Amino acid sequence: MDFQKMAALGAQGAAGGILAAWLGFVWLIRPVSSGGIDAVSWHAASISTFVIFGLLSAVHLYFAAQLKRGADSIRG
Predict the structure, then answer these.
(1) What is the pTM of this model?
(2) 3-state SS, residue 32
(3) By C-alpha distance, which of 21, 6, 25 is closest to 64?
(4) How many Cα atoms sit within 13 Å of 56 on the Cβ side?
């Protein structure tokens, strides 16, 4: 297995890890009965942080697809 295929696999793993980190963040800031953030603010924070985490994950998936195609597809 060549380096590009391994790098593509790593980028796919990073994309999944980023989304898992987002789920952990959303779970960490969830509203609880003993206080903390209210439900409306929790939804707003969850959605707004998904944009950031989702874009990071999408970029990693894009890089993985580019690496899978091979060296000819990378311009630079």
Answers:
(1) 0.81
(2) strand
(3) 6
(4) 14
